[in-house]
Design a protein that fits this description.
about 60% helix, single chain
Length: about 170
């Protein structure tokens, strides 16, 4: 029973590798249709092909190790796990924590849009669509105006500006 966690971890890794292969062979439409993403997508083709070959070579070895723990394991029954989109992650400290760090370091009050731009620059996000920019803008706005409201000074205007309350 002690090796149950190892077997489960290996099966999960197998499913993730299958998902990665599927993403390489059938990429999301936004990567193949949007102009900026399409150019990057086409430029990365050799890297993806090399990764696909590497995974195909490694899968039989991983399946062999899994069968050492569970001889009746059927690899055809594994449900693949597709990787998340590359740009969907958050900063390690969370969006609110990142916004507060920026406001603490700021020499002058910043707008929500400026805070979002700084978060994107620091974490390597590409905010090239209105929907994506609005997603982060809303998240920062909600965090500053609710969770961190006692620790932030608001300077009213159009748009409002914020700075960490140092007093």
């Amino acid at each position: 029973m002690k090796e149950q966690w190892l077997k489960n971890a290996l099966i999960t890794e197998y499913a993730k590798l299958l998902g990665e292969i599927q993403r390489i062979e059938k990429p999301p439409k936004y990567e193949t249709r949007l102009k900026a993403d399409r150019e990057r997508f086409l430029a990365e083709a050799p890297e993806r092909e090399a990764r696909r070959k590497q995974i195909h070579e490694g899968l039989p070895h991983l399946a062999y190790v899994i069968r050492m723990f569970e001889p009746e394991w059927d690899e055809a029954a594994v449900k693949l796990i597709r990787p998340r989109a590359a740009n969907s992650g958050l900063p390690p400290e969370g969006i609110g924590g990142a916004a507060m760090d920026i406001l603490r370091e700021a020499a002058e009050p910043l707008t929500i849009a400026e805070v979002v731009d700084i978060i994107a620059d620091r974490n390597g996000f590409v905010l090239d669509t209105v929907d994506l920019r609005q997603k982060y803008h809303t998240a920062v706005n909600n965090q500053i105006k609710t969770t961190y409201q006692p620790f932030v000074r608001r300077i009213c205007g159009k748009p409002d500006r914020f700075i960490a309350d140092r007093g």
